[in-house]
């Protein structure tokens, strides 16, 4: 197993802008006040006159074998169509349910609560999921999904079918998402667990004022396309105190995301927290106002990542902040990839049309198992026309160049710890410290002034040394 090297990346006001092109349309905000603003949403209690609708009163059986789909649908209709305060209860037990809709609009002026105490099991026949979702919550104004229960997607068979289909080159059916929220406003998803989803665990789209708290997500690291929480076309989403272990992105965000905060999320195994891919389709809405803070990545393939397609369509991602991030044995901690899925065999060698701007990293630290701590591939033109000059590296004698693949000038002598192409400009100062400690526990204090090298440069490329016990890097200017 590769030895983990400590990489302390203390990046102060690390701002970047790539691809100065048409940014495309702005996010269309979803109207409506945030009814939970200033409230303690963690607290749940019965209110006077609240009606409890138990699925077992509609024929559901908690044996894990009886098909409870119709019973769940009937119980939901009774809950949604009643004008009073209502609570749908899924009690202790194991309830087998196929694809179904929790559809609104509902008659109650108050948020509807779905309290899940037991375990809801998905049926395993993939042909029953033609709509692409297992449980869809749609067109609901005010929803609480709580209770400490579990949604088990029983996705093992579908994963193997997906892998076999992809190997055959056939057109494959998308595996269903477990919990799909569409056109939900003022939603609280809290204290639930999702295990072994066939596809994405939680899918949030066309939603506003959503809070996702204390969600536990678990699937094997080999499970394909099992994103933990996926967000698109949504505004004012707060994700906090979640533990996500899965086979794909822990959190993924694509077009139309506006004002999203991700706080205190533990990710790993998985593919990290990603924005994108962007620029694949025409008329994509921009991503704007994303804050990722106080998150920990453990043993993930990626840490924090922005990815856009080259030579596709215009788009934009702006006002993005990553702060107080801890990496523990992460393969690729920081990535901005504007050559997504671009290989020497299929790359058109044309720049991405997605503008990435106002991206800030602050207090990102930890360990990586690869020689590349930061990988920046920002398309501001044909990088073959760009040059570097005046690069000085002070490293151990056994230091090796490794892990920087692809064509383009200015790579052979790229400095250790960060790689980037083509050359662009930083707008402010960066501090980087690299040491050879194998400890997986990040330091609690920033490195001292004597332990860091100030890099006042334009797009510095720092690589992590493999064998040097202590390395300082000094990069002067990199220009066109």
UniProtKB/TrEMBL annotation:
Transmembrane segments: none
Keyword Secreted annotated: yes
Name of this chain's protein: Pectate lyase superfamily protein domain-containing protein
Signal peptide extent: 1-23
SUPFAM superfamilies: Pectin lyase-like (SSF51126)
Keyword DNA repair (UniProt): no
Active-site annotation: 271
InterPro entries assigned: Glyco_hydro_28, PbH1, Pectin_lyas_fold, Pectin_lyase_fold/virulence
Keywords assigned by UniProt, alphabetized: Cell wall, Cell wall biogenesis/degradation, Glycosidase, Hydrolase, Secreted, Signal
Region annotated Disordered, chain positions: 402-423
Main localisation: secreted
GO molecular function ontology, one term from the record: polygalacturonase activity
Any single GO BP term: carbohydrate metabolic process
Provenance organism: Lupinus angustifolius
Family of this protein: Belongs to the glycosyl hydrolase 28 family.
Compartment list: Secreted, Cell wall
């Amino acid at each position: 197993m590769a030895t983990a090297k400590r990489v302390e990346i203390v990046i102060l006001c690390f701002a970047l802008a790539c691809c100065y092109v048409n940014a495309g349309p702005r996010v269309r905000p979803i109207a409506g006040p945030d009814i939970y603003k200033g409230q303690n949403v963690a607290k749940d209690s019965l209110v006077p006159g609240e009606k409890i609708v138990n699925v077992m009163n509609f024929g559901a059986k908690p044996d894990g074998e009886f098909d409870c789909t119709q019973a769940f649908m009937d119980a939901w209709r009774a809950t949604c169509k009643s004008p009073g305060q209502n609570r749908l209860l899924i009690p202790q037990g194991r309830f087998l349910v196929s694809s179904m809709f929790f559809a609104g609009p509902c008659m109650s002026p108050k948020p509807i609560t779905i309290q899940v105490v037991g375990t809801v099991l998905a049926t395993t026949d993939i042909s029953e999921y033609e709509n692409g979702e297992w449980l869809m919550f749609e067109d609901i104004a005010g929803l609480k999904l709580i209770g400490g229960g579990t949604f088990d997607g029983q996705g093992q068979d579908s994963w193997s079918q997906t892998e076999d289909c992809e190997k055959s080159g056939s057109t494959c059916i998308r595996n269903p998402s477990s919990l799909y929220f569409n056109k939900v406003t003022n939603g609280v998803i809290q204290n639930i667990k999702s295990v072994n989803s066939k596809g994405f665990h939680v899918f949030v789209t066309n939603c506003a004022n959503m809070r996702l708290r204390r969600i536990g997500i678990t699937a094997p690291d080999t499970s394909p396309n099992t994103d933990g929480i996926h967000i698109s076309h949504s505004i004012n989403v707060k994700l906090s105190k979640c533990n996500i272990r899965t086979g794909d992105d822990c959190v993924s965000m694509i077009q139309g995301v506006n004002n999203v905060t991700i706080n205190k999320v533990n990710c790993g195994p998985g593919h990290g927290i990603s924005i994108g891919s962007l620029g694949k389709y025409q008329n994509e809405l921009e991503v704007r106002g994303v804050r990722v803070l106080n998150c920990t990545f453990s043993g993930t393939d990626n840490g924090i990542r922005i990815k856009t397609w080259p030579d596709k369509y215009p788009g934009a991602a702006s006002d993005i902040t990553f702060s107080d991030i801890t990496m523990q044995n992460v393969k690729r901690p920081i990535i901005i990839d504007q050559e997504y899925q671009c290989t020497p065999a299929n790359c058109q060698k044309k720049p991405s049309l997605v503008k990435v701007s106002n991206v800030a990293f602050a207090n990102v630290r930890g360990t990586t198992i690869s020689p590349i701590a930061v990988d920046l591939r920002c398309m501001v033109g044909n990088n073959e026309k760009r040059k570097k000059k005046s690069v000085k590296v002070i490293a151990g004698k056994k230091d090796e160049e490794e892990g920087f693949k692809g064509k383009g000038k200015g790579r052979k002598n790229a400095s250790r710890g960060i790689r980037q192409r083509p050359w662009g400009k930083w707008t402010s100062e960066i501090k980087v410290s690299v040491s050879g400690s194998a400890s997986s526990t990040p330091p609690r204090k920033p490195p001292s002034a004597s332990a860091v090298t100030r890099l006042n440069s334009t797009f510095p490329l720092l690589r992590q040394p493999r064998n040097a016990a202590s390395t300082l890097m000094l990069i002067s200017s990199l220009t066109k």
